[in-house]
Structures are given as structure tokens and as C-alpha cells.
Request: fold
Amino acid sequence: MRLGLNVGYWSSTAANPARAQAWLDVAVEAERLGYSCVWVAEAYGSDAATVLGYLAARTSTIDLGAAVFQIPARTPAMTAMTAATLDTLTGGRFRLGLGVSGPVVSEGWHGVRFDAPLERTREYVEIVRRALRREKLRYSGRHYTLPLPDGPGKPLHLQLRPPRAELPVYLAAIGPRNLELTGEIADGWLPVFFSPEHAGEQVRHLRAGADAAGRPLTGPGGFDIAPSVPVVGPDWRKCADAVRGYAALYLGGMGSREKNFYNAHARRMGFEREADEVQRLYLERNYQAAMQAIPVEFLDATSLLGPVDRIADRLQAYADAGVGTLNVLPFPAGGGSGSLDAVATLRAAAEACDKAGVS
Reply:
């Protein structure tokens, strides 16, 4: 099992230029420590591609990944161009993570209807792969048609020749059908709120998709399960409080009352009553109460909390659950976003990984 770093949304620190710069310096420390990948997220603040381009110039060996590029934000051809450019700039170090986002961002920010996400994802990935192989783009689907049949457009191919025609494609997926699609068409999975003790059913859906495609889910060079996991130390109960705001945002506010994939995931984990309460409080804008309503058992199950020895004990469970890349999401115990805390967290996670013997 390898370690990665997820720097999350750079926009959360960009209001303070010095702090934002220091946070990006954490990626350089991750490379020095031997981490395998740095991932960058986007929602409706900073975009991931620009930050990844900056990190490409600051690093030389560590992989760089989008976690994730939002499917409604870019055409498949634009994503292929961006991926090819980043892979060229990094000498073949780019990993392409994709996700449909959710109805609030897709429709509210990008003006794209959140309909048929599975079918849209399938078509999107197929077009991106064809473009990266430098095929002339001809495609007739429900959501994408290339070229348009009633105009002057003609099939074009990617002018840039990236180092690799087959870039690793990861999907962010939560629901059962989306997990099956991920196992079928992707090279890796980017889960959030991943719990080794609750992952069996999710992995079964991944395997069902892989089986349907006639491809192995495990083995050398195989499928990569790559969760982003909050890591905080050293007092685990106090550390749990540092993660409450993050968990409440996703379980309570990432989606509508009727369609929140993260809330549904918590319910499938057995936290039905608590998930309902968190969502109710969050949508009523009682954010502090929503944070306190997150059960500590949920936080402990989906995070790595506490001193190095406690984290090391938990890491074996992640390896046993099939995790290939565990992406550290540093959370300062004081609730801030200090880069010094993040560097200490990276070093503690690396030490724990060595102690656990899973690296």
C-alpha cells in the first residue's frame, strides 16, 4: 500500500497568499518523503488543472492527480487536452480522476442538468480515452455527438502527442451502480468516507463491474483503490472534533434533502438516524449542531485519528480491504489549516506506514 497526499481545495487557503503558498510547499515535502501521488480537488473555487500545472513545475518524481475534474465543467475533448498537456509537462506522471459532482454544483454552477450520471460518465470516459489515443473523434451517444451532424464540423484528432496513450483513469463513486461502472471502465476508484470495516459491499460492486468487463480487479498493475482519509493526531478524541466540519458539510450540505450521495453512504454504513439528523440541522443552517450530531464512531471509522501507533494499527485494515493508495488528507488538530501541521501529519503517516509494514 502506497501513501498519497490530497491537498483538497486550494481555494480554501487562497485568501491568504502566504498560507496558500506554504500549503503547496507541502506537496514538495510529500515528494521528499516518498509519497506516490499528490491529488488536487475542485468544486466552485480554484480549478484543479491550474494548481496541478504549478505543482508540475515544483516536482520531478511524484505523480500528480486530479481528484477530481468535474465532468459537467468540461467537454470530454477539453479534459483529454488538459490531461495530455499535464502528462506531457510531468513526463508521464499524471492521473486523471473524474466525477459527475452533484446536482447543486452541476446545475447551479455549470448549468448542466444532473441527469443520467452513469450513462454520461460512460460516454465521457470513452471519448476521453479515444482522444488520448489520438483517434479521429467520431461519436454518437445520447449525451455527446461528435462531430455535430448538421454543421461544418469534422472529425479531429489530438494534435499533442502525450507520453502515454493510456493514462490511468480514476472515478469518484459512492452508490452501488456507480461502483459497478467504476469497476468496469476505470483504472482506479477515489472514495471518500472509506471505512475498511464497511468496504466489503462496495468492493463487491467494483468486482461485479470488473467481472462483467472480463478484467481482473486485483493483481500487478491492476485496479487501484485510492481513498482520501482525514489524518489527525495525537489525541484521537480531540482529533475527531477537527474532522466534524468536513463530515457535516458532506453529509448535510453536499446535495439536496432528496439527493445527497454522501448522506446515503452514511446510512448504508448503519448511521441512518444520525445521518438524517445531521442533514436536517445542516439544511436549517444550524451548522454547529450538525457538526456535533456526527457520531464519533463514524468519524473514527472513516479517518485515521490519534498517535502514530494507533494509526499504524488501523493501516493494516486499509491494506486488508484492498487499498492500493491511501491518500492522506491532513487536518490540523487545532482546526486551522497550517502547513507546519500538515508536514508533521505527512511525516507521522509515513512513520505509521513503516511501523505497520504495509508500505
In short: The mean pLDDT is 92. The chain is about 45% helix and 15% strand. The radius of gyration is 20 Å. The chain has two domains: 2-236+302-356, 237-301.
